[in-house]
Amino acid sequence: MAWIGCLPASRSNFLHLIKRGTVGVIVGGIAEMFMVDSKRERVKLVGRKGFVRVALEAGVDLVPVYYFGQSQVFCNYGPPFLARLSRKWRVAMGVLVGRFFLPMPRPIPIYLVHGKPIPVTQISPSDPGFEKAVDELHVKAVEAIKDLYMRHREEYGWPNRPLSIE
């Protein structure tokens, strides 16, 4: 993945990339890869506050984005025990199961939607109100993702597909 410009989601990498321009973050990471569900959309956001901390420290706005269909390109990533090992070793280990039960993506249309930027005021991590600001901004980010999903799911053809934020 490094060949195409991907970097580990570390604080130092975020801060370096923010100075160079826009940064896209897949918050769910390895844990979300194993959360594929045929009946509902599952997003890993609970407890994921690192991106909010970096946004506050750097004073950059957050733009909520949702990719409809991306969770269905592969119908499975592997058995649950691989999820635990992958998280522990910080490397995605799994078996992609897609079209014809091969590691080939299924032909699913992907629909990207984005919301209005969430304004962020720069706050130093040493500020006594930093953790409270992190919690408040995280709630706003989660609500923005929920709102995006609910507003656009019918356009994508999922009027009754629920969203589960875990």
Automatic annotation (TrEMBL):
UniProt membrane topology term: Multi-pass membrane protein
Keywords of the record: Acyltransferase, Endoplasmic reticulum, Lipid biosynthesis, Lipid metabolism, Membrane, Transferase, Transmembrane, Transmembrane helix
Compartment(s) where it occurs, according to its Swiss-Prot or TrEMBL record: Endoplasmic reticulum membrane
InterPro entries in the record: DAGAT
MF terms (GO), sorted A to Z: acyltransferase activity
Family the entry assigns: Belongs to the diacylglycerol acyltransferase family.
Protein name per the record: Diacylglycerol acyltransferase
Native organism taxonomy: Eukaryota, Viridiplantae, Chlorophyta, core chlorophytes, Chlorophyceae
